[in-house]
Structures are given as structure tokens and as C-alpha cells.
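Sample entry (71 residues):
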Amino acid sequence: MKRISYFDAAWDRRSLRGALRLSFDDRSQTDLRDLSMNELDLLIAMLRVEKPLFYDEATERFTTDTRYPAD
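Predicted structure, serialized as C-alpha cells:
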């Protein structure tokens, strides 16, 4: 689980798909690609409003609570 420090978003009008690049406190990054408009919209809203927000690459889970149990 890594704390997200900032993000970049992109939307491709031709393919109607989006992408996010998440940057973490440890300076590492991960790319989320092939996102629908609804998914991209939801994730950007969470990234803007929820502080701090964490991401677990293994489970692809976003959370505000690092104690959130993994499945």
C-alpha cells in the first residue's frame, strides 16, 4: 500500500479510453490504462477530494485507510 502524492490524467477522444499515472511518496509511479469515462471520472474525484489516499498495486485497491483488509 503506497500513499499517492500526485497524479496525471489523460483522455483519448478517439478511443474513448482514459489513463492515470499515479506518483507515490517514495517517487515510484504506476500507470492505470484503458479506463472507461466513468472509472476515470470516479478516480479523479477520489484523488482530488480524499486526502490521504493510498493505492495497493497487488489488489488494485484505493483506500483512505491503510488498515483496510486485503481480500
